[in-house]
From TrEMBL:
InterPro entries referenced in this protein's UniProt entry, alphabetically: ClpP/crotonase-like_dom_sf, PDZ, PDZ_sf, Peptidase_S41A, Tail-specific_protease
The name this protein goes by in its record: Carboxyl-terminal processing protease
Organism of derivation: Flavobacterium xanthum
NCBIfam families found in the cross-reference section: prc (TIGR00225)
Keyword annotations from UniProtKB, A to Z: Hydrolase, Membrane, Protease, Serine protease, Transmembrane, Transmembrane helix
CC annotations in GO: outer membrane-bounded periplasmic space
Length: 524
């Protein structure tokens, strides 16, 4: 039975909501964590001990404790969450901005670990690992034919800096096995995907999250763009769930004048902590545009709110998620953690952009789905704002609180060449999987092509478009691309470019017809 495509956007909204809960939409100070030691015998501890020692059947008391913590936090707000040890390690690495490993992007294709692309200048690239290689063994551990979960594969490939690992590789293009010894090293996890020029004077920076290294990555990108002649800056935080608020504040500081308010927080006892811009701004003049959508949250909203409320730039896109709560993290000895909401944050005009959560977590996260269903993603007039929560900037611009950042310039979901389900699908991981499989069948078809030759070849063929349509039907999605051909071909070409040439080439292709980017360039 085929899955109806009309439910695809709702499924994707649900995926983003899960990311909010598990740490993609954090907004906590980047400070030393607590280490919680429970020595006192509270009522809860006594109960657990009683069960452990006296209960008639064997019980995993750890699971009871986890369930208890989850239930307690569920009574609070949607962003106060418990994170078990396995998930906490992954989130911590992502927010740190690097990990120690061999440096490959891989894909579990059928029953094998297939290399999509080695990280540039990483250990695997230096050792000669190539796109399309299959990793059969990590030292003596068999990896193929076992359908190992991704976290188990990561565990086999990670290690300490400078440690060796011997990989047994099958190189399909040469039909032979190879043994490659690799010395593990620190691998960066980029939070700034790309910094490039949209035209001779307009720079573009894409930020996917706010991690420990985001500000430094941003400054490197900004420096490059200024050197290339950028006078206008477009910062893209679409689908950016947030992260460390200090990183967003530091970026806002580079754009705002000395002593302009960036954000302030208010705790339970009424303590207010204000953060102002300093005199060090590196881009205090020139036009600024911030791109947001329904999945921009937390630290992304701090940046957008600071720019909007200070009349510094233009917010373009669709209403942001609406997370205005600050969390503090407490680590436990077993590697788990609790993130507890300790304050609310407010934009410079004094507005809270936190959307209501009094109806419970399920209703809170389904609010994103409701935006799709009520037409808000397609018509600005469908955005529901409260007239009782309105503020004005110093220049008199009307802004609203109570549920996300409402953009100055509304741009609907990109559906001009098709429907919304197609638009969401093309930005999902399924396109990358399809492209890898196509390259794996005939990587030689692109060998030796320059980027311009590649683009010409892709424009002149419908082979991959037709194959992708068949691929989608084969995966149970009843989604016909007949009216979306140009949109589908653009994203397919972009993904081929990413896997063949690198990340920046993906954006170079996608942004040429991006609705929000086109709107900015047109109004300039």
């Amino acid at each position: 039975m085929k899955f109806s495509a009309k439910y695809l956007p709702i499924l994707i909204f649900s995926t983003f909501a899960l990311g909010i809960v598990l740490g993609g939409l954090l907004n906590f100070p980047n400070t030393a964590d607590y280490l919680v030691k429970n020595n006192s015998k509270s009522k809860l501890n006594k109960l657990i001990d009683f069960i452990d020692n006296e209960y008639v059947d064997d019980v995993n008391t750890d699971s009871i404790v986890n369930l208890t913590v989850d239930n307690i936090l569920a009574k609070l707000d949607p962003h106060s969450v418990y994170i078990p040890p396995s998930e906490q390690l992954e989130v911590a690495e992502s927010m740190k901005g690097n990990f120690v490993g061999i440096g490959v992007n891989f894909y579990m294709y059928k029953d094998s670990v297939a290399v999509i692309k080695p990280v540039a200048d990483g250990p695997s690239a230096k050792a000669g690992i190539q796109s399309g290689d299959r990793i059969l063994y990590a030292d003596k551990t068999k990896l193929f034919g076992r359908k190992l979960p991704t976290d188990s594969l990561y565990a086999k490939l990670k290690g300490s800096v400078g440690s060796d690992i011997e990989l047994t590789i099958y190189r399909k293009s040469e039909r032979k096995k190879l043994k490659v010894r690799i010395k593990r090293d620190v691998i960066p996890i980029k939070s700034v995907d790309v910094a490039l020029l949209l035209n001779k004077t307009t720079g573009y920076i894409k930020i996917n999250r706010f991690a420990e290294t985001t500000y430094s990555e941003f400054m490197i990108g900004l420096g490059k763009l200024k050197a290339q002649g950028a006078k206008t800056l477009v910062i893209d935080v679409r689908d950016n769930g947030g992260g460390y608020m200090e990183e967003a504040i530091a970026i806002a500081d580079e754009l705002l004048l000395n002593q302009q308010l960036i954000v302030f927080t208010k705790s339970k006892n009424g303590t207010i902590d204000k953060t102002f811009a300093t005199a060090k701004g590196n881009f205090e003049k020139g036009n600024v545009f911030i791109l947001i959508n329904e999945n921009s949250a937390s630290a992304s909203e701090i940046l957008a709110g600071a720019i909007q409320d200070n009349d510094r730039g233009t917010i373009v896109g669709r209403r942001s998620f609406g997370k205005g709560l600050v969390q503090r993290e407490m680590n436990f000895a077993d590697g788990s953690a609790v993130r507890l909401t300790i304050a609310r944050y407010y934009t410079p005009t004094g507005r809270s952009i936190q959307k209501p959560y009094s109806k419970g977590n399920e209703a809170y996260f389904k609010e994103s789905e409701a935006r799709f269903e009520n037409g808000e993603l397609f018509e600005k007039d469908s955005i529901k704002v409260s007239d009782t929560i309105k503020f004005r900037t110093k220049k008199g611009k009307l802004v609203y609180g109570g549920g996300g950042i409402v953009p100055d310039v509304f741009v609907p979901l990109e559906v001009e060449h098709g429907n919304e389900s197609t638009a969401y699908l093309l930005q999902s991981g399924i396109v990358g999987n399809f492209v890898f499989e196509q390259l794996d069948k005939n990587r030689g078809a692109f060998k030796g092509l320059s980027f311009d030759q590649f683009q010409t070849q892709m424009k002149g063929t419908n082979v991959y478009f037709n194959a992708f349509q068949k691929f989608i039907f084969g995966n149970g999605l009843d989604l016909n691309f007949g009216k979306s051909k140009s949109l589908v071909k653009r994203y397919l070409t972009a993904e081929f470019a990413r896997q063949l040439y690198g990340e920046s080439y993906y954006y170079e292709i996608v942004l040429t017809e991006d609705a929000m980017v086109k709107r900015i360039l047109k109004q300039k």
